[in-house]
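Today's session is about reading a structure prediction critically. Students often jump straight to the picture, but the first step is always the sequence itself: look for stretches that repeat, for charged clusters, for runs of hydrophobic residues. Only then move on to the predicted structure, which in these notes is written as discrete structure tokens rather than atom positions. Here is the chain we will use throughout the hour.
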Amino acid sequence: MTARTHDAFAFASLITVATFYPPENISILTFFAAVVGNIIGGLIPDMDQASNRLWDLLPLGDTLAKVFRRIFFRHRTLSHSILGMVIIYNIFDWVLPRLLNPVHVDPHIVFISIMIGYASHLLADSLTKDGLPLFFPLPFEIGIPPFRFMRITTGKWVENLLVLPGIGLYLLWFIKTFSSEISRVLHAVGS
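Below is the predicted structure for this chain, in token form.
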């Protein structure tokens, strides 16, 4: 999937989870940090590519991208596996409480948002022809549906004309269907 599809899929996943498991209250800073964290989480699995947009946001991003690309062997290996997700989980679980001031930003909500983005990335990539090396380093890929010929080719017309607009339609339907629940979540912001 392309970066914009991953962004949309991560955001749709965040809205869905937040609607069914709303926080009791959330500061405005936490709300914005959670949305940004979700988008970052949705891009983290592709940090094994030097062209990832995440590298453009960091100082010395080009240099870091070259280093990380060597660590991951090739695209869709460690960062697209359960092992990679566990590593990222532990890194952010340790870093965020030390990085964010809990008086202003709830590190737990931001952490959950990042992990929702990460998981949504893996789910979206499982729909592509290449599938996922979910059990890396074991040498087989998992895909949905299980037959490769039925999966999506990244960046082609199915993704651009069906998947991406489909995510938009899902969001419109979801917001209309669950407007009262979403309203309660939004009222919790700043309270």
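Discussion point for the tutorial: The two ends are 37 Å apart (CA to CA).
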